[in-house]
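Try this one yourself first.
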């Protein structure tokens, strides 16, 4: 039986299709829509299929105690100042939406609460992403499904039983599952890339990889191992302020990653041995017999 594919925007994702590359902008924009647009531009220029943001209703996702916790940051002195400063509103997302349309790149978001799903729905997103932190939030999972859009599910910091339960809640229709390890940055020894094979054997679904490690080699390896989707955090500069910058790659890194995946896909061939026209002069020159 052919493994399922899922359509994200105008692109099929799954077995037999090119690897779909997502540039995770997340909160690396540091509250600046101009910075976000710069990251979108370099991601589109690298050949990424999509960019992804994060959306939260701050006073729903975080407790008053957490918001009041002291934390020096560019927006103030509390954690609440930071969380509010990092959130884009309607006008910012209108600008992002228009810019992505101009550059012909998909965009979507991981929504951490029901109101955020309702907010992003106004932009007719190509899909929704469910963050690893939300995997056990059954009501949020069901709320996503009410809009009938494709779902991408990240599985970091989750047991196999929790993953099974989340997939049961979501159903397997129009679902992509991403293996992930939720440390920032993740250590190579804890990536457990063979889970890509485990999930592919267990589910007739597109299985991908969301990487939070430094470097490119392991994300490329995940694509070679059969990941239908690769997601990597991207930033303009890893030295920028922010909690996710160290687990991100810079524009030149994203260019290389997309190029590596593209070259690998172009090199696959069909597995049937043949002598290429370009080899014939070399054969005639070098072989003594035959």
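Now uncover the answer:
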């Amino acid at each position: 039986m052919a493994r399922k594919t899922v359509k994200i925007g105008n692109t099929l994702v799954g077995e037999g299709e090119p690897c779909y590359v997502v540039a995770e902008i997340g909160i690396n924009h540091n509250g600046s829509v101009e910075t976000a647009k710069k990251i979108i531009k370099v991601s589109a220029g690298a050949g990424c299929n999509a960019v992804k943001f994060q959306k939260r209703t701050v006073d729903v996702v975080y407790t008053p105690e957490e918001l009041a916790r002291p934390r020096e940051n560019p927006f103030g002195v509390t954690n609440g100042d930071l969380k509010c400063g990092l959130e884009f509103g309607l006008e910012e997302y209108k600008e992002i939406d228009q810019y992505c349309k101009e550059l012909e790149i998909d965009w979507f978001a991981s929504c951490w609460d029901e109101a955020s799903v309702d907010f992003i729905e106004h932009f007719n997103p190509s899909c929704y992403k469910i963050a690893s932190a939300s995997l056990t939030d059954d009501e949020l999972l069901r709320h996503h499904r009410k809009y009938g859009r494709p779902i991408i599910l990240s599985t970091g910091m989750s047991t196999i039983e929790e993953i099974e339960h989340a997939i049961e809640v979501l159903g397997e229709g129009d679902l992509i599952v991403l293996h992930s390890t939720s440390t920032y940055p993740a250590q190579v020894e804890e990536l457990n890339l063979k889970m890509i094979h485990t999930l592919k054997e267990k589910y007739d679904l597109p299985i991908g990889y969301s990487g939070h490690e430094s470097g490119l080699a392991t994300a490329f390896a995940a694509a070679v191992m059969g990941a239908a989707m690769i997601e990597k955090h991207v930033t303009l500069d890893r030295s920028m302020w922010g909690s996710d910058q160290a687990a991100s790659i810079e524009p030149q890194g994203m260019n290389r990653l997309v190029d590596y995946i593209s070259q690998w896909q172009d090199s696959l061939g069909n597995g049937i041995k043949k002598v290429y026209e370009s080899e014939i002069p070399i054969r005639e020159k070098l072989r003594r017999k035959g």
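Discussion: The CA atoms of residues 16 and 49 lie 17 Å apart. The first strand starts at residue 5 and ends at 8.
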